Amino acid sequence: MTTLSCGVLSGPICCPAPSSARGVRGAAGSSGASKRSGGRPGNGEREPSSFLSASSASASASDSSTSSSSSGSDITASCSSSGVFRGRFGARASPSALSGAAGRVGRGWTGATFGISRAICPLRCMAPTPGTGAAFTNGRPAAGSSQVDLTSVLSVDTRYKTETHAAASAGEQVVEETQVLFEANEEFRKNALVSSTEKYEEMYKQSVEDPDTFWSEIASQFHWEKKWDVTDGKVHTENFDVRKGPIKVEWFKGGKTNICYNALDRHVEAGRANDVAMFWEGNEPGYDSSVTFGNLLDLVSQVSNYLRSVGVKKGDAVVIYMPMLVELPVAMLACARIGAIHSVVFAGFSADSLAQRISDCKPKVVLTANGVMRGTKFINLKTIVDDALKQAKQEGYTVETSVVFANEVATKKEETAWVEGRDIWWQDVIPSQSTKSEVEWVDAEDPLFLLYTSGSTGKPKGVLHSTGGYMVYTATTFKHAFDYRPGEVYWCTADCGWITGHSYLTYGPLLNGATVVNFEGVPTYPDAGRCWEIVDKYNVNIFYTAPTAIRALMREGDKPVKKHLRKSLRVLGSVGEPINPAAWKWYYEVVGDSRCPISDTWWQTETGGFMITPMPGGWPLKPGSATFPFFGVQPAIVDENGKELHGECSGYLCVKASWPSTFRTLFGDHPRYETTYFAPFKGFYFSGDGCHRDKDGYYWLTGRVDDVINVSGHRIGSAEVESALVHHPLCAEAAVVGYDHEVKGQGIYAFVTLVEGVEYSDKLRKDLIAKVRSQIGPFAAPDIIHWAPGLPKTRSGKIMRRILRKIAASQIDELGDVSTLADPGVVEQLIELRDK
Ligand code: WTA
């Protein structure tokens, strides 16, 4: 492995539903939530249109208002007028290419295959196969039998108008493709970890041809108490094909390690005890702290000793429902230290959602805080936890211990409700613990954490990650996708309640010994310059956020950004949804002063780490494209029959083989794991996303192809919202779809049928929204409620969501054939009621 020893991989890693029938207006339904159908159909995943679903958005983002000034036409204008669009990072495109971006759709540009000054194809093996790009015609699948019925998914239709492109044909969301190339300047490339396409190609080739050698060399740079087993030269085993038996993935089995030891002790032992591991910035400016690797290790040790003292052992679950205090990542690391499985629940989920998760994983202990301020809003976390624990108890599971961090900045201890015998103040039990804590050496395949994603049936899916492969993969992806250099300060704005906060706020950066910024607040409090103020305060070098935040800040104009220097910034990152070119360009030009490459990282809770991502310096970027697969990742774009497409094409994004941080199962439900992710396309992991690959081999994510709505970069199952709506006694039936939202990416649009005889009113609308807030959380609140005396259904009673999506998008002239509906008149009625 010559490239591996050339230093590219050396550095930081090697140094150290209700069912009662009420009168329903309209025909029978089987696919929206209805009182008569008992909320949700079936027990398994919603077929055929639901392959994945998960959980959702941040309260702050979802609270943001809807107007936006962002528009793709702004870019076209500025590009055209300046003749050539070239930043310091080095954009290259002909003016004609830019002004030729006709037919703007969605929030930005439509793509077009106009002249690119230079075509690159890092995956040279990927020769275009004539004809395979035409798997979808006019946004519909080509004729042919399908192993899974994807017809209804595809009938979602596309708003992609350019005939020469079918980029969005597999997904509802429109890809906004732009062929402008941005290339890092020479200085950047010279110093980059992956400094050329050639280097990437060489390493990528090794990683897929001999993954065992490739990943073992990287894994060797961590501490293993005992080395993993090697069988016939292999360090991993996998079966990704349901036809060949149970789906199974193992990496580094037999190896004994501990991710907490690798993230903390290793650096302390290497003499870095006094280096800052985490800057904590509170919601209120002026409230901050910094902890060194030594401090962090002490804190983690104390929490782990306490957990042991109350009987938490290796393999036990611990639920963490905390705001973004230092104590949140500390709690995660403390669990990892003793081999307990942490299950962090985003502290924006309602009591019902928390109770559901508690009942499922049965934690010995719940760790929480009494409250938090988010912007100007106080959130009483303790009452939510109390409510959840009460519900869990009614459902048959009692949590013995609830540890409450007294967050004095947000609320007073004496105002906190208390259950004697169960509740205990964090501050009363943790600081008195010893700062020495034995490490529990665990097998690489022992579980590290559970993270629930909302299921399309309403039952959340507990995505389970194991230890060794996750450790190796998150550390390596962090390092390369951000071109991390030792000593740099990195800020990820994600909450630890989501996967990004696990992999790229906690584990990935700390494993690399990076200094991370942990921010408790929201980007717009006290003003829209807060992020850049923080960047300057801590000299942040790498800044990682979501398109929804970028769009929200972009709406406030350039001034709040330019007020701050941002000189320290070197690399920017994006995650959660496709970033539209207008936001990309603003992020690049205004935030990054046309100096910083943007790593648009595509990945999922299930993948644990980046799957398709730029490696800054390695190759030119195209705004809106996540570019190329990470080492070891073998993406496949397949048609509706599961046939792999080659060259330029559009279809369903799958992965052909395991990568070290593949999720191992869904907690307690391996059959659902197989059915949801591996059964739709035999032999592949199915991501649930649509994807286009352009002629240069760049990957363009086009959004979900299932009934999952991506709100502010977080996933919400439409079925979950429907189920919450029909919990309202006056709601007879509900069908929920996503629609374009200028800040959130997608918003939630709910069609609601009321119980016979009930009058529609604004009060009822508010009550329905409140119902969803209390059942799921504020972030899942519908943006629009559309009264629906009837829903468009086929004669067999299936709701035609394609039509609802068109109505939601005001594309009334594109409704298509409605003659197969049981009652075509329903559509007209819905159109009439659109703005009522
Ligand atoms: C979407 C978040 C386009 C996608 C890490 C995926 C993206 C889902 C991107 C996973 C990106 C995430 N470009 N789409 N860079 N990143 N997505 O599990 O639809 O919360 O399936 O993980 O977000 O969301 P999850």
From TrEMBL:
Domain AMP-binding enzyme C-terminal: 720-798
PROSITE patterns, A to Z: AMP_BINDING
Molecular function terms from GO: acetate-CoA ligase activity; AMP binding; ATP binding
InterPro entries noted in UniProt: Ac_CoA_lig, ACAS_N, AMP-bd_C, AMP-bd_C_sf, AMP-binding_CS, AMP-dep_synth/lig_dom, ANL_N_sf
Domain Acetyl-coenzyme A synthetase N-terminal: residue ranges: 200-263
The protein's Enzyme Commission number: 6.2.1.1
EC supergroup of this enzyme: ligase
Annotated keywords: ATP-binding, Ligase, Nucleotide-binding
Pfam families linked: ACAS_N (PF16177), AMP-binding (PF00501), AMP-binding_C (PF13193)
Occurrences of domain AMP-dependent synthetase/ligase (ranges): 271-657
Family (UniProt): Belongs to the ATP-dependent AMP-binding enzyme family.
Name used for this protein in its record: acetate--CoA ligase
